[in-house]
Design goal:
Layout (H helix, E strand, L loop, with lengths): L10 H59 L2 H4 E5 L5 E6 L2
Antiparallel strand pairs: 1-2
Protein name: Sporulation protein YunB
Keywords: Membrane, Transmembrane, Transmembrane helix
Amino acid sequence: MVYRRKYQKRRGNFKAFMTLVLLFLFIIYSFMFVDQKIKPAVLAIAQVKAREIATRAINEAVNDRVSDDIKYQDLIFIRTDDEGNVTMMQANA
């Protein structure tokens, strides 16, 4: 007598594969959802940080330039009368 094996389809592997695929799709969708919700806040924080860095750099450059050789007389023009009294103070342009 010749015995033939009856082959059964392995449904367990297919179920595991489909479970992994669905889990993977769920994780991808979750990342996209979180990214969509968090992106505006992250962009706002980045803009504030960039503005802060730019302001700090500009302030340091101005302070370096002003502290070098500029005196009060370079910034303000003072006009006096014949007796030495201040009659006008004007900003130099």
